[in-house]
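QA checklist item 7 of 12: single-chain prediction sanity check.
[x] sequence parsed
[x] length recorded as 160
[x] structure emitted
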Amino acid sequence: MPYLVDGHNLIPKISGLELGELDDEIQLIELLQEFCRLRRKQVEVYFDNAPPGQPRARNYGMVLARFARHGQSADELIHARLQALGGAARNWTVVSSDHEVQAAARAARAQAISAEAFARLMGETLEGTPREPTRDGEAGQSADDIDDWLALFGAKGEGE
């Protein structure tokens, strides 16, 4: 499920990032790129205040950064994107702790998670935190990963 991210809402929730730094947006985009690579996800991140003379949308691989022009807000861009998605919005997750943005996500039938929860997910992903424990209680590969490996190497699973 791809993500629509309220960028300036997420930045202060990530350890090591701080709003107001000259390159805070680029730092977030770089972290999101790695997150997308590891999770095989797509992210659209929205920021207020497009830099003068710069395009309002820039592609960074699996991350699309959108900047609101003067007189607009990132929240308005997210709302417009949800409207443009129509019924497909239910396949997206909106990341923001802003209650109005979350309400817009729910109204469009999209998932909504807080910036804090997403920051934890990013941290776990980027730090390589082990996956859920197996039945034995030890961290290991998921059943889907094992099936993929078995299919790749032509091995058959148990009972096949």
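[x] summary fact logged: The chain has a mean pLDDT of 85.
[ ] second reviewer sign-off
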